[in-house]
Design goal:
Blueprint lengths: L1 E4 L5 E8 L5 E6 L2 H16 L11 H10 L5 H14 L13 H13 L13 H20 L25 H13 L3 E5 L5 E5 L4 H11 L5 H5 L6 E2 L4 E4 L2 E2 L6 E2 L8 E4 L5 H8 L19 H14 L7 H14 L4 H8 L3 H7 L1 H4 L10 H5 L18
Antiparallel strand pairs: 1-2, 2-3, 4-5, 6-7, 7-10, 8-9
Length: 394
């Protein structure tokens, strides 16, 4: 191992080793500890007959090779490719073997605080999205290690924070204000024009999106699930919505649900019949339930943008499509609906539900077992009957 001081006076440590053919290789590290560990790894691998020549595979090449090695559903591949194309951009051309923990931490900070490759106005991602991106990259590195392409991964995953905080939940009045704003329009937002300058714009009425929000608030569907509904999925006669597919990220096609548990049947509250009836009665079974004026379904990104502009306009940024789902679940649990029933309606396992909504389950021993009406009648839509869980949905 060699100690070297560069022209800036900074100390660097050089690990040296020989490959199977006797050729010497070296790699520079910031600390003696890293250099020593790498040198030991190379020596150990050489003693086992492994190839110790440095690999020049880039992070992008490694990630693509990992994806190609897996039998993925279309929806899952869509998710992983989105991480590659939107989140991994700064690391694409890094040699995978040379990426350090420091590089990963810098990338993570950009994901959290603002992604310059997306644009100057980008505000970064939430904790869950950041962790998911890191999970995907970690999986690619683990594959490379299993394939003996690399020896170690620089990705150190942040601890999972599954439990939700009640402070993140909007109340019924906030939800109602945002839904009304979406329905009536008027939210002011800034957007870059053809002159490359930002201008104020006013959002027009979006009654279809407002209706979608009403449905999510009383069914707990995910944005991709409600966006992917077709008329055949909504059975007003039996009073159920059959969740059998979801919309892909581009909003162009129905794809498989991520897990078998996500395939489920959700009861329709009476208040939703007048909301849903115009979208399904007399229409072709294969038609999209909710579409824009152009006749295309709403992608998750488009839904998120519409709701975000309205929420900011109403000064209540806690409202977005997924918090409607959380509020639905929290309301049912608070009302005393059995945990296993709520888990089934949400498409969760009981364990995930308990970990996610622990704040709701603690200290509510006096709950009354009333269903959607009592759990969600905090001003959104009141008067629903007891929640019914229907088995055997196809």
């Amino acid at each position: 191992m060699q100690r070297r001081v560069n022209k800036n006076g900074e100390v660097r440590w050089i690990a040296r080793w020989r490959d199977k053919g006797g050729k010497e290789h070296s790699k520079t590290f910031d600390t003696r500890r890293e250099a020593k560990a790498h040198e030991a790894d190379m020596t150990s691998k050489a003693s086992r007959g492994g190839d110790t020549a440095p690999q020049k595979m880039t992070v992008l090449q490694m990630y693509d090779a990992w994806l190609d090695s897996r039998p993925l559903r279309a929806s899952s591949r869509d998710t992983y490719e989105s991480t590659r194309d939107r989140q991994l951009v700064p690391l694409h051309n890094f040699p995978a073997v040379e990426v350090t923990v420091r590089d990963i931490n810098q990338w993570r900070a950009q994901l959290e605080n603002g992604r310059p490759w997306i644009g100057k106005k980008d505000r970064g991602l939430g904790a869950v999205s950041v962790r998911n991106a890191m999970l995907h990259l970690a999986a690619a590195y683990n594959w490379a290690i299993d394939e003996e392409i690399l020896l170690r991964s620089p990705v150190q995953l942040p601890a999972a924070e599954r439990a939700l905080d009640m402070e993140d939940f909007p109340d019924a009045e906030e939800i109602r204000r945002v839904i009304d704003c979406v329905r009536e329009g008027g939210a002011v937002y800034r957007m870059k024009g053809s002159d490359k300058k930002y201008h104020d714009n006013k959002q027009g009425p979006q009654p279809v999106v407002a209706d979608m929000m009403e449905v999510v608030a009383l069914t707990g569907l995910r944005a991709s699930e409600i966006g992917g509904l077709i008329v055949a999925d909504v059975d007003l006669e039996r009073g159920v919505i059959r969740v059998r597919a979801q919309l892909n990220r581009n909003g162009t096609a129905r794809v498989e649900l991520k897990t078998a548990r996500s395939r489920r049947v959700v009861p329709i509250a009476p208040e939703l019949y007048p909301v849903l009836r115009p979208y399904v009665e007399g229409r072709d079974a294969a038609a999209w339930v909710f579409t824009s004026a152009r006749g295309v379904p709403y992608s998750g990104n488009r839904l998120a943008g519409i709701v975000r502009y309205a929420a900011r306009h109403c000064n209540t940024t806690r409202v977005h499509m997924h918090t409607l789902r959380h509020s639905f679940a929290s309301g049912l649990l608070t009302a005393g609906v059995p945990v296993q029933d709520v888990a089934q309606v949400l498409g969760h396992t009981v364990q995930v539900l308990l970990e996610t909504y622990t704040h709701v389950l603690d200290g509510h021993s006096d709950r009354v077992a009333e269903g959607i009406a009592s759990g969600l009648s905090r001003g959104i839509i009141a008067g629903s009957p007891t929640l019914r869980v229907i088995e055997g949905g196809a």
